[in-house]
């Protein structure tokens, strides 16, 4: 039953030996699963995270498991625009072009926090940071490259969208509803941006895909209230084991959008 809930596997056997891939949030969960699969196909992988020690450890682990030495960890904090600029400068030193950008990093139900750029942490991590990163990488994106945004069905539940207010840190937004709405609105913004980005760069052959991987067992749920309570967590465990996808299962739609030649004529669409 869990295998059925996990959905179909990506059957594409395409090799990526001459391709350069960037994955944000690549040290755990979905990002790590995608990084390993693409590295095993020979791609040069640049994955990001904020934890330096963990990033370097994952770098060596992936190199050993995939027998691919072209795997590089780079520090990136999406909650800091200066960090994003520095990362892009580093990318420009490492490679002359990027063939695949996977905007994967994100937070869910994060406690209210103001970033160094004076924005809400959930909104900046999930939307503003990836917006800036993608725009800065446009010059280095290869013609016929692909850009994937990790989306969520939560965007359907965004009640309203006022960017002037959404960007502002609200110290009082501590309730369950407020924290969920911050996430939902960020994902809605990301989806809308992906469509406009696809339209702007269609003539270059850049293909853009928004992917909802479903409910995947990753650290993104670490702040989820129902999992903070040990009793509720224990009650949910058998249900989650059945219906929640593993990172490998959740990665399949991402891999399909990254690899399938059948999607070469599609752009700006939503996949789930």
Describe the structure.
The chain has 272 residues and is α/β, with parallel strands linked by helices. It has a single domain (2-271), classed as 3-Layer(aba) Sandwich (Rossmann fold). It is 44% helix and 14% strand. The chain has helices spanning 2-5, 29-39, 52-66, 81-94, 121-137, 163-166, 176-200, 225-228, 230-243, 247-259; strands at residues 20-23, 44-49, 71-75, 98-103, 141-150, 207-211, 269-271. Strands 3-2-1-4-5-6-7 form a seven-stranded parallel sheet, sandwiched between helices. It is globular. The mean pLDDT is 89.
Highest-level CATH class: Alpha Beta
Main sheet properties: 7 strands, parallel
Give the topology string: H per helix, E per strand: HEHEHEHEHEHHEHHHE
What is the approximate shape? Answer: globular
CATH superfamily: NAD(P)-binding Rossmann-like Domain
Strand order of the largest sheet: 3-2-1-4-5-6-7
Enumerate the spans where pLDDT stays under 50 for 5 or more consecutive residues.
none
- Computed Rg: 18 Å
Query: Based on the structure given, which CATH architecture is correct?
Result: 3-Layer(aba) Sandwich
Number of separate strands: 7
User: How many domains would you count in the coordinates?
Assistant: 1
Mean pLDDT: 89
**Into which percent range does the helicity of residues fall?**
40-55%
Strand fraction equals 5-15%
CATH topology: Rossmann fold
* Helical segment count: 10
Distance between termini?
19 Å
Task: Name the structural class.
Answer: alpha/beta
Keywords: Oxidoreductase
GO molecular function, one term: oxidoreductase activity
């Amino acid at each position: 039953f869990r295998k059925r809930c996990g959905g179909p596997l990506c059957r594409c056997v395409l090799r990526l030996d001459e391709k350069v891939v960037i994955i944000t949030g690549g040290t755990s969960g979905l990002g790590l699963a995608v990084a390993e699969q693409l590295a095993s196909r020979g791609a040069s992988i640049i994955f990001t995270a904020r934890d330096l020690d963990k990033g370097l450890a994952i770098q060596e682990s992936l190199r050993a498991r995939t027998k691919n030495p072209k795997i590089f960890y780079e520090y990136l904090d999406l909650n800091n625009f200066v960090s994003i600029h520095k990362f892009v400068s580093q990318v420009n030193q490492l490679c002359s072009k990027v063939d695949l950008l996977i905007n994967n990093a994100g937070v869910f139900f994060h406690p209210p926090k103001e970033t160094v750029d004076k924005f809400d942490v959930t909104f900046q991590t999930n939307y503003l940071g990836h917006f800036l990163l993608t725009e800065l990488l446009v010059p280095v994106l290869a013609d016929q490259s692909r850009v994937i945004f990790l989306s969520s069905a939560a965007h359907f539940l965004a009640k309203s969208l006022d960017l002037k207010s959404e960007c502002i840190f609200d110290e009082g937004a501590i309730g369950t509803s407020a924290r969920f709405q911050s996430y939902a609105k960020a994902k809605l913004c990301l989806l809308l941006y992906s469509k406009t980005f696809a339209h702007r760069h269609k003539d270059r052959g850049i293909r853009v895909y928004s992917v909802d991987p479903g409910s995947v067992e990753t650290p993104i749920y670490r702040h989820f209230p129902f999992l903070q309570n040990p009793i509720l967590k224990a009650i949910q465990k058998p249900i989650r084991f059945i219906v929640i996808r593993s990172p490998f299962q959740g990665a399949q739609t991402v891999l399909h959008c990254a690899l399938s030649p059948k999607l070469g004529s599609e752009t700006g669409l939503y996949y789930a």
